[in-house]
């Protein structure tokens, strides 16, 4: 990858933004990440595990992907000694019924979301702009 004029780029968090810094601790916080079963969403979940969040909840549409991502997150927590509890929920963010059900379940379980990461998107109907 070549970017003319760019002399330095980072592939990993650098020291100033490391989630392991005490001042960036997420202790006691519950984090919910849409699109958390892979890619950027999964990387964000791992960063919150490194920052010792109380709970990381990942959302996605595919149970198999969520299951394997949850196993990966639990291993990450165990390896790093983080107390984070990782869990997954099936939720289609393009469905009002699905998202309403998710929030109702979280409310019934008395789980308060402190940090919401919106990492998934839904496409609307394709139609002409003019």
TrEMBL record:
GO terms for molecular function: oxidoreductase activity. The keyword Isomerase does not apply. InterPro entries: NAD(P)-bd_dom_sf, SDR_fam. Keywords: Oxidoreductase. Transmembrane segments: none annotated. One of its GO terms (cellular component) is membrane. Belongs to the short-chain dehydrogenases/reductases (SDR) family. This is Uncharacterized protein.
